[in-house]
Design brief:
15 helices, mainly alpha, elongated
Protein backbone atom coordinates (compact mmCIF):
# COMPACT_ATOMS: atom_id res chain seq x y z
CA UNK A 1 0.00 0.00 0.00
CA UNK A 2 1.15 3.52 -0.70
CA UNK A 3 0.32 7.00 0.47
CA UNK A 4 -2.56 8.80 -1.07
CA UNK A 5 -1.47 12.10 -2.54
CA UNK A 6 -3.34 15.33 -2.96
CA UNK A 7 -3.28 15.27 -6.75
CA UNK A 8 -2.94 11.57 -7.37
CA UNK A 9 -4.94 8.36 -7.58
CA UNK A 10 -2.44 6.63 -5.27
CA UNK A 11 -4.67 5.88 -2.31
CA UNK A 12 -3.92 3.62 0.61
CA UNK A 13 -7.17 1.68 0.87
CA UNK A 14 -7.54 -1.52 2.84
CA UNK A 15 -9.83 -4.08 1.20
CA UNK A 16 -13.52 -3.96 2.08
CA UNK A 17 -15.15 -7.33 2.67
CA UNK A 18 -16.25 -9.03 -0.58
CA UNK A 19 -15.22 -6.11 -2.80
CA UNK A 20 -13.90 -8.47 -5.44
CA UNK A 21 -15.13 -11.85 -4.31
CA UNK A 22 -15.53 -14.65 -6.86
CA UNK A 23 -19.29 -14.84 -7.39
CA UNK A 24 -19.49 -18.56 -8.23
CA UNK A 25 -21.85 -19.53 -5.42
CA UNK A 26 -24.55 -17.34 -6.91
CA UNK A 27 -24.01 -18.75 -10.37
CA UNK A 28 -24.35 -22.29 -8.96
CA UNK A 29 -27.84 -21.35 -7.72
CA UNK A 30 -28.67 -20.33 -11.29
CA UNK A 31 -27.38 -23.67 -12.55
CA UNK A 32 -29.39 -25.65 -10.01
CA UNK A 33 -32.70 -24.00 -10.82
CA UNK A 34 -32.42 -23.19 -14.53
CA UNK A 35 -34.78 -25.37 -16.52
CA UNK A 36 -33.17 -24.63 -19.87
CA UNK A 37 -29.85 -26.42 -19.17
CA UNK A 38 -29.67 -29.96 -20.65
CA UNK A 39 -29.18 -32.72 -18.05
CA UNK A 40 -25.67 -33.70 -19.19
CA UNK A 41 -24.56 -30.09 -19.37
CA UNK A 42 -26.06 -29.49 -15.94
CA UNK A 43 -23.92 -32.30 -14.55
CA UNK A 44 -20.79 -30.98 -16.24
CA UNK A 45 -21.43 -27.46 -14.99
CA UNK A 46 -22.11 -28.71 -11.46
CA UNK A 47 -18.77 -30.56 -11.51
CA UNK A 48 -17.12 -27.41 -12.89
CA UNK A 49 -18.52 -25.42 -9.99
CA UNK A 50 -17.07 -27.91 -7.49
CA UNK A 51 -13.68 -27.71 -9.19
CA UNK A 52 -13.77 -23.92 -9.07
CA UNK A 53 -14.50 -24.10 -5.34
CA UNK A 54 -11.33 -26.18 -5.03
CA UNK A 55 -9.33 -23.71 -7.12
CA UNK A 56 -9.03 -26.12 -10.07
CA UNK A 57 -9.88 -23.61 -12.81
CA UNK A 58 -8.16 -25.59 -15.57
CA UNK A 59 -10.38 -28.66 -15.14
CA UNK A 60 -13.48 -26.50 -14.78
CA UNK A 61 -12.53 -24.64 -17.96
CA UNK A 62 -12.39 -27.93 -19.90
CA UNK A 63 -15.85 -28.94 -18.66
CA UNK A 64 -17.38 -25.60 -19.59
CA UNK A 65 -15.77 -25.74 -23.03
CA UNK A 66 -17.39 -29.15 -23.60
CA UNK A 67 -20.74 -27.61 -22.73
CA UNK A 68 -20.14 -24.76 -25.15
CA UNK A 69 -19.37 -27.26 -27.94
CA UNK A 70 -22.83 -28.74 -27.35
CA UNK A 71 -24.46 -25.33 -27.21
CA UNK A 72 -22.46 -22.15 -27.70
CA UNK A 73 -25.49 -20.16 -26.49
CA UNK A 74 -25.46 -21.80 -23.04
CA UNK A 75 -25.33 -18.70 -20.86
CA UNK A 76 -24.29 -20.46 -17.65
CA UNK A 77 -21.41 -22.15 -19.50
CA UNK A 78 -20.36 -18.82 -21.04
CA UNK A 79 -20.24 -17.18 -17.62
CA UNK A 80 -18.42 -20.00 -15.87
CA UNK A 81 -15.95 -20.44 -18.72
CA UNK A 82 -15.14 -16.73 -18.62
CA UNK A 83 -14.59 -16.88 -14.89
CA UNK A 84 -12.16 -19.79 -15.36
CA UNK A 85 -10.30 -17.96 -18.13
CA UNK A 86 -9.86 -14.90 -15.92
CA UNK A 87 -8.83 -16.81 -12.79
CA UNK A 88 -6.29 -19.11 -14.46
CA UNK A 89 -3.10 -18.31 -16.42
CA UNK A 90 -4.81 -17.95 -19.81
CA UNK A 91 -2.68 -15.26 -21.41
CA UNK A 92 -3.92 -12.49 -23.68
CA UNK A 93 -5.96 -14.84 -25.88
CA UNK A 94 -7.70 -16.35 -22.84
CA UNK A 95 -8.58 -12.91 -21.47
CA UNK A 96 -9.90 -11.81 -24.88
CA UNK A 97 -11.99 -14.97 -25.11
CA UNK A 98 -13.38 -14.43 -21.63
CA UNK A 99 -14.45 -10.86 -22.38
CA UNK A 100 -15.91 -11.93 -25.73
CA UNK A 101 -17.98 -14.63 -24.01
CA UNK A 102 -19.19 -12.18 -21.37
CA UNK A 103 -20.25 -9.69 -24.05
CA UNK A 104 -22.00 -12.55 -25.86
CA UNK A 105 -23.88 -13.52 -22.69
CA UNK A 106 -25.22 -9.98 -22.30
CA UNK A 107 -26.33 -10.01 -25.96
CA UNK A 108 -28.14 -13.34 -25.51
CA UNK A 109 -29.78 -12.34 -22.22
CA UNK A 110 -29.80 -8.54 -21.92
CA UNK A 111 -32.56 -8.61 -19.28
CA UNK A 112 -30.63 -10.91 -16.94
CA UNK A 113 -28.77 -8.82 -14.41
CA UNK A 114 -26.22 -11.56 -13.75
CA UNK A 115 -24.83 -11.37 -17.31
CA UNK A 116 -24.13 -7.65 -16.82
CA UNK A 117 -22.75 -8.29 -13.34
CA UNK A 118 -20.25 -10.84 -14.65
CA UNK A 119 -19.30 -8.59 -17.55
CA UNK A 120 -18.59 -5.75 -15.12
CA UNK A 121 -16.71 -8.09 -12.79
CA UNK A 122 -14.64 -9.40 -15.71
CA UNK A 123 -13.77 -5.88 -16.84
CA UNK A 124 -12.66 -5.03 -13.29
CA UNK A 125 -10.48 -8.14 -13.24
CA UNK A 126 -8.83 -6.83 -16.42
CA UNK A 127 -8.54 -3.31 -14.93
CA UNK A 128 -10.88 -1.92 -17.59
CA UNK A 129 -12.64 0.23 -15.01
CA UNK A 130 -14.18 2.74 -17.41
CA UNK A 131 -15.80 -0.06 -19.44
CA UNK A 132 -16.86 -1.93 -16.29
CA UNK A 133 -18.85 0.95 -14.83
CA UNK A 134 -21.82 1.02 -17.27
CA UNK A 135 -22.13 -2.78 -17.15
CA UNK A 136 -22.28 -2.76 -13.35
CA UNK A 137 -24.76 0.11 -13.31
CA UNK A 138 -26.92 -1.88 -15.74
CA UNK A 139 -26.72 -4.92 -13.43
CA UNK A 140 -27.78 -2.77 -10.48
CA UNK A 141 -30.74 -1.41 -12.44
CA UNK A 142 -31.93 -4.93 -13.36
CA UNK A 143 -31.31 -6.39 -9.90
CA UNK A 144 -34.48 -7.74 -8.20
CA UNK A 145 -35.36 -6.01 -4.90
CA UNK A 146 -33.69 -7.57 -1.86
CA UNK A 147 -31.10 -9.51 -3.87
CA UNK A 148 -27.90 -10.20 -1.90
CA UNK A 149 -25.67 -9.28 -4.85
CA UNK A 150 -26.51 -5.61 -4.37
CA UNK A 151 -23.61 -5.10 -1.93
CA UNK A 152 -21.04 -6.67 -4.25
CA UNK A 153 -22.25 -4.62 -7.21
CA UNK A 154 -22.18 -1.36 -5.22
CA UNK A 155 -18.64 -2.03 -4.01
CA UNK A 156 -17.43 -2.83 -7.52
CA UNK A 157 -19.06 0.37 -8.80
CA UNK A 158 -17.33 2.38 -6.06
CA UNK A 159 -13.99 0.87 -7.03
CA UNK A 160 -14.58 1.84 -10.68
CA UNK A 161 -15.58 5.35 -9.64
CA UNK A 162 -12.34 5.77 -7.69
CA UNK A 163 -10.26 4.55 -10.63
CA UNK A 164 -12.09 6.96 -12.95
CA UNK A 165 -11.80 9.96 -10.57
CA UNK A 166 -15.60 10.00 -10.14
CA UNK A 167 -15.39 10.67 -6.42
CA UNK A 168 -18.82 12.26 -5.92
CA UNK A 169 -20.54 9.40 -7.74
CA UNK A 170 -18.50 6.85 -5.76
CA UNK A 171 -19.45 8.52 -2.47
CA UNK A 172 -23.14 8.42 -3.44
CA UNK A 173 -23.04 4.74 -4.36
CA UNK A 174 -21.31 3.91 -1.08
CA UNK A 175 -23.91 5.56 1.17
CA UNK A 176 -26.61 2.82 1.02
CA UNK A 177 -24.15 0.41 2.64
CA UNK A 178 -23.89 2.53 5.79
CA UNK A 179 -27.15 1.11 7.14
CA UNK A 180 -25.83 -2.46 6.93
CA UNK A 181 -24.33 -3.76 10.16
CA UNK A 182 -21.24 -5.35 8.60
CA UNK A 183 -20.20 -2.02 7.07
CA UNK A 184 -21.37 0.26 9.86
CA UNK A 185 -18.79 -1.41 12.11
CA UNK A 186 -16.02 -1.75 9.50
CA UNK A 187 -13.18 0.81 9.86
CA UNK A 188 -12.17 0.23 6.24
CA UNK A 189 -15.61 1.35 5.11
CA UNK A 190 -15.20 4.69 6.92
CA UNK A 191 -11.65 4.92 5.62
CA UNK A 192 -12.77 4.73 2.02
CA UNK A 193 -15.69 7.16 2.55
CA UNK A 194 -13.22 9.58 4.13
CA UNK A 195 -10.91 9.37 1.12
CA UNK A 196 -13.79 9.84 -1.31
CA UNK A 197 -14.94 12.90 0.64
CA UNK A 198 -11.42 14.29 0.68
CA UNK A 199 -10.98 13.75 -3.05
CA UNK A 200 -14.14 15.73 -3.76
CA UNK A 201 -13.04 18.59 -1.52
CA UNK A 202 -15.23 17.88 1.52
CA UNK A 203 -12.63 17.98 4.29
CA UNK A 204 -15.20 18.26 7.09
CA UNK A 205 -16.85 14.95 6.12
CA UNK A 206 -13.46 13.35 5.51
CA UNK A 207 -12.20 14.18 9.00
CA UNK A 208 -15.45 12.98 10.55
CA UNK A 209 -15.17 9.63 8.78
CA UNK A 210 -11.47 9.24 9.60
CA UNK A 211 -12.40 9.74 13.27
CA UNK A 212 -15.15 7.12 12.97
CA UNK A 213 -12.70 4.69 11.36
CA UNK A 214 -10.20 5.20 14.16
CA UNK A 215 -12.88 4.68 16.81
CA UNK A 216 -13.79 1.36 15.21
CA UNK A 217 -10.15 0.21 15.20
CA UNK A 218 -7.54 2.45 16.90
CA UNK A 219 -4.68 0.27 15.62
CA UNK A 220 -5.73 0.07 11.96
CA UNK A 221 -2.50 0.83 10.10
CA UNK A 222 -4.16 2.02 6.90
CA UNK A 223 -6.45 4.45 8.70
CA UNK A 224 -3.54 5.78 10.76
CA UNK A 225 -1.44 6.21 7.64
CA UNK A 226 -4.16 8.08 5.77
CA UNK A 227 -4.72 10.42 8.72
CA UNK A 228 -0.96 11.03 8.80
CA UNK A 229 -0.95 11.89 5.10
CA UNK A 230 -3.97 14.15 5.57
CA UNK A 231 -2.16 16.24 8.20
CA UNK A 232 1.12 16.06 6.29
CA UNK A 233 -0.07 16.98 2.77
CA UNK A 234 -3.41 18.73 3.19
CA UNK A 235 -2.93 20.63 6.45
CA UNK A 236 0.88 21.02 6.59
CA UNK A 237 0.81 20.02 10.28
CA UNK A 238 3.99 18.01 10.25
CA UNK A 239 4.21 17.44 14.02
CA UNK A 240 0.76 15.87 14.11
CA UNK A 241 1.54 13.92 10.94
CA UNK A 242 4.77 12.61 12.47
CA UNK A 243 2.87 11.20 15.46
CA UNK A 244 0.43 9.36 13.20
CA UNK A 245 3.25 8.00 11.03
CA UNK A 246 4.92 6.62 14.16
CA UNK A 247 1.65 5.05 15.26
CA UNK A 248 1.31 3.52 11.78
CA UNK A 249 4.70 1.83 12.06
CA UNK A 250 3.78 0.50 15.51
CA UNK A 251 0.48 -0.86 14.15
CA UNK A 252 2.26 -2.55 11.23
CA UNK A 253 4.64 -4.43 13.52
CA UNK A 254 6.66 -6.87 11.41
CA UNK A 255 4.22 -6.75 8.48
CA UNK A 256 4.71 -5.01 5.14
CA UNK A 257 8.41 -4.13 5.24
CA UNK A 258 8.28 -1.98 2.10
CA UNK A 259 5.49 0.12 3.49
CA UNK A 260 7.37 0.63 6.74
CA UNK A 261 10.46 1.72 4.82
CA UNK A 262 8.43 4.31 2.88
CA UNK A 263 7.03 5.73 6.11
CA UNK A 264 10.47 5.79 7.77
CA UNK A 265 11.83 7.64 4.74
CA UNK A 266 9.06 10.21 5.09
CA UNK A 267 9.76 10.52 8.83
CA UNK A 268 13.42 11.22 8.03
CA UNK A 269 12.39 14.00 5.66
CA UNK A 270 10.02 15.48 8.26
CA UNK A 271 12.79 15.39 10.91
CA UNK A 272 15.08 17.41 8.64
CA UNK A 273 12.27 19.82 7.78
CA UNK A 274 11.35 20.39 11.43
CA UNK A 275 14.99 20.94 12.44
CA UNK A 276 15.29 23.62 9.78
CA UNK A 277 12.27 25.59 11.00
Amino acid sequence: MIFFKKDSNDISIAPIASIICIPVYFLFAVLCFSGCVPVDDHKELSHAYQEIQQGDYSSAKIRTELCLRNDNHNIEALLLNSLCQLKSPSGVLGISKALFNLEKATSLAPQRYDTWYYLGWGKVQCKKYREALPALEKALKLLPPGNKRREDILLLIVRCCIKNNLYTKGFQYLQPLRCLEQYASDPNFYNITAILALKRGDEHTAVSHFIQALKKDPSNATVLQNIAVYFDIYKAKQLVARDYYIRTIAALGDRDINRRLLIQKRLGYLAEYLRGK
